[in-house]
Specification:
Elements: H1 2-15, E1 22-24, H2 29-37, E2 42-44, H3 50-59, E3 63-66, H4 69-77, E4 81-84, H5 90-101, E5 122-125, H6 127-130, H7 136-141, E6 145-148, E7 154-156, H8 159-194
Parallel strand pairs: 1-2, 1-3, 3-4
Antiparallel strand pairs: 5-6, 6-7
Helix pairs in contact: 1-8, 5-8
Length: about 200
């Protein structure tokens, strides 16, 4: 089981060529916002029947993230892509998500691409365009500003940006720990199986 698991993780990694797209159910709203911040296309459905959520996941080729075991069983039965998360905290849930693909989060991060509130695309705007829309001291302290094309929310690299960047590094450290643990388990299992009896 160990070597097979490690092999599957590596195989999945080689199959993931572009950013995965996600669909997050009602229990994981905070995870959805963070995935969007990291630049990942993430739909969040706060209220909707399971069949509708699964249908959207299949139609749009999205990985459905859930903490609901019954929902996860239905996802698998329908042939959709899904990951059952334990819901303990955002760091663990996001690490588990990317570990399932056998890949790190870091290479997929593009913080200036998605609105964390509505999943809309961001576009860079000038100082002149933000004046009068946000406090004067923020305009003077920052050099880059982005606006959501969908909800018009404005973004800049403040303290929240720095804390989420730090979170992304902790997530990648956790993924690396899990991958190393799996590879170690696979290697140990394999070496035990080929030891010759005297």
């Amino acid at each position: 089981m160990g070597p097979l698991l490690a092999k599957n993780v590596g195989a999945r990694k080689s199959l993931v060529k572009s950013k995965p797209a996600f669909l997050v159910d009602a229990m994981l709203g905070s995870v959805a916002r963070k995935l969007r911040f990291f630049g990942l296309d993430t739909l969040y459905i706060a209220d909707g029947p399971d069949d509708e959520i699964i249908g959207i996941g299949i139609k749009q080729n999205r990985v459905i993230l859930t903490c609901d075991k019954d929902m996860y069983r239905r996802i698998m039965k329908a042939g959709a892509q899904g990951i059952l998360l334990n819901g303990s905290d955002d760091l663990e849930n996001i690490a588990q998500t990317f570990f399932s693909f056998g890949m790190m989060l870091g290479p997929y991060i593009d913080v200036s691409s998605r609105c964390c509130m509505c999943n809309g695309l961001l576009s860079e705007i000038s100082h002149a365009e933000v004046k009068g829309k946000i406090p004067f001291n923020i305009v003077n302290w920052h050099t880059q500003f982005f606006e959501c094309k969908k909800c018009n929310k404005l973004f800049w690299e403040g303290s929240h940006y720095l804390s989420l960047r730090a979170l992304s590094k902790r997530i990648d450290s956790r993924i690396k720990e899990r991958l190393e643990k799996n590879n170690s388990y696979a290697t140990d299992s394999l070496s035990q199986s080929i030891v010759k009896k005297p």
